[in-house]
Structure formats: structure tokens, C-alpha cells
Design goal:
The protein has twelve helices and eleven strands. It is α/β, with parallel strands linked by helices. The protein has two domains: about 10-85 and about 180-265, D-Maltodextrin-Binding Protein, domain 2 (3-Layer(aba) Sandwich), CATH 3.40.190; about 90-175, 3-Layer(aba) Sandwich (D-Maltodextrin-Binding Protein, domain 2). Strands 1, 2, 3, 4, 5 and 11 form a six-stranded mixed beta sheet that branches. A five-stranded mixed beta sheet has the order 8-7-9-6-10, sandwiched between helices. α8 packs across α9 (about 215-225) and α9 packs across α10 (about 230-240). The longest helix has 20 residues, at about 195-215.
Length: about 280
């Protein structure tokens, strides 16, 4: 496809709280996308991964764990990613239990193409899981439908009052590698003309930078719009999820992504794939 000035550029963005915060300035037109007609397309991360596998959006946030399934069509941008820097997806339970008990437990999770699920497999392979909508994961544990849950970035902002944290996979990953845990990345379709890609990436980076520099006001606007039941938990999650690494992952972020993908491939948790191109 040939792109031209004024042509609509579709950007897939997470409907989660961190996605709303990163793209808030763009969505309310506080940041202008020079020469581009941008359409923001919010969806849950599993849907974004699926759309990227069919190259539906010119740019999109996706799970880092989905990279092998989209790599022929996309490159990874230096902005728009999220990392768990010493924190990450959490394994929680209703009853106090030991890490050694996990093999016998049924887990609720919001998706199996997410980086959180891939991290769980690296941590403890072969666990039994039940797929549920993101807003049903915590209640499933609280009501006893399942024994445990994996709280990924779509469920981190939901109150988990009364549940016990068995393991924080971001903390485990940091102690293992000394790196932040890659959660999502922002990808650019390879057939997008380079100048348009550069302008779109700049607009996204500016939107993220605006969210960081005006964190209190931007967070307030996002929480007012989303209406989470526990604003304190949601605000705490946003404070640690949208950071300078989201605006520019740098060499630390690139190394974290490459290490995560390499370790998953070595453990036969994903097919081998080319080393990502970073743009």
C-alpha cells in the first residue's frame, strides 16, 4: 500500500489504564500529529495482539510475548513500551500458600498471548489456567472459583483486597537478570513510509512525555474517565507503569526485550524468531 499525506493512520492502543494515560494527550488533541490523520483504536491487549498478527493497524501496542507472531510485519519503536522495573505481574491467592503449592492450583488469567503469561511460564511451566475477562480475574479468586490468579497490566489497577501475593514476577525477573521485565512494546508496520512512521512515533513519544511531565493532572483525567473502583490502587499502578522507559526505552529496554525473547525461545515457550529491528 502507498501512503500519502492526510491518509488515516490507525494506531492500536490498550484500553487499560496505562494505555489510556500514555495516549491521553493525543486523544484529547493536546499533542498534534504533524501532517497525519491518526485514528486511535483502543482494545484489550489480546485483541491488539490478534490484530497485529493480521497487520490491521499501521502502529500498535502489543505484548512483547507476541513478537514471534508479528515480527515479519513490524519493527519495534523506541517509545510506547511498558516495563516492570522491579515490579510486574503478580501471582495472588485467596488462601495463604507456598510457592511450591502452585503446581496443583487452577489459575485465572486474562490472556495467554501476554507477556505476563509468558513470564509465568518461565517462572513455573505447565500451570493449569482458566481464561477470563480482565475484570473477572480478581473476583474469580475472591469467590473461590479458582485458587490463584495472574494479575497482568490489565488487572493490576483493580483492587485485590484480601488476596495474598505469592510472587511478583517483575521482582523475580529483576533478581534473575538485573533488568526490567518487558510487558508491552509499540510496533510500526514495515510498509509505512519512513517519514510518516517518524512523525507518528514522535507524536506518541510527545504524548507519553506529556503524561509524565503532567502526571497528576493526566492521571486525574484518566481515572475520571475510567472510573476504577479503587482509585488509590489505580493511581499507584499508573505511577510505576508509565515512566521514562516508556518515553525512551534506550539500551536498557532493548536488552530487556532481547533477553526475555531469548530466554522464552531457549525454554521452547515460543518459536525462534528474528532479532527485532528497533526504530
Amino acid at each position: 500500500m502507498r501512503y500519502h499525506s492526510g491518509m488515516k493512520i490507525k494506531i492500536g492502543i490498550p484500553a487499560s489504564l496505562d494505555g489510556r494515560l500514555m495516549f491521553h494527550a493525543l486523544s484529547v488533541k493536546k499533542i498534534a500529529a504533524e501532517g497525519l490523520d491518526i485514528e486511535l483504536r483502543p482494545a484489550d491487549i489480546e485483541t491488539l495482539n490478534d490484530r497485529a498478527s493480521r497487520a490491521e493497524n499501521e502502529l500498535s501496542v502489543v505484548s512483547v510475548g507476541a513478537w514471534p507472531y508479528i515480527c515479519p510485519k513490524y519493527a519495534i519503536a523506541g517509545c510506547g513500551a511498558t516495563f516492570g522495573d522491579g515490579w510486574g505481574p503478580r501471582i495472588v491467592s485467596r488462601e495463604v500458600m507456598e510457592d511450591t503449592d502452585l503446581a496443583a492450583m487452577l489459575f485465572a488469567t486474562a490472556g495467554t498471548t501476554t507477556s505476563a503469561f509468558l513470564a509465568l511460564q518461565l517462572y513455573r511451566p505447565g500451570l493449569k489456567v482458566m481464561l477470563l475477562p480482565a475484570d473477572k480475574v480478581v473476583p474469580a479468586v475472591q469467590t473461590g472459583l479458582v485458587e490463584c490468579a495472574l494479575l497482568d497490566h490489565e488487572t493490576q489497577g483493580i483492587s485485590d483486597s484480601g488476596l495474598h501475593c505469592i510472587a511478583d514476577l517483575g521482582d523475580w525477573w529483576f533478581r534473575k537478570t538485573g533488568l526490567p521485565l518487558p510487558i508491552t512494546c509499540f510496533v510500526v508496520r514495515n510498509d509505512l513510509e519512513s517519514q510518516m512512521a517518524t512523525l507518528a512515533i514522535k507524536a506518541v513519544r510527545d504524548s507519553i512525555r506529556c503524561a509524565i511531565d503532567n502526571h497528576a493532572a493526566a492521571t486525574q483525567a484518566v481515572l475520571d474517565q475510567a472510573g476504577p473502583a479503587d482509585r488509590i490502587a489505580a493511581a499507584s499502578f499508573l505511577k510505576k507503569s508509565v515512566t521514562d522507559l516508556s518515553a525512551d526505552m534506550g539500551e536498557t529496554g532493548k536488552k530487556a526485550i532481547l533477553t526475555f525473547l531469548s530466554m522464552a525461545a531457549e525454554n521452547n515457550l515460543m518459536p525462534p524468531c528474528p532479532i527485532p529491528d528497533f526504530v
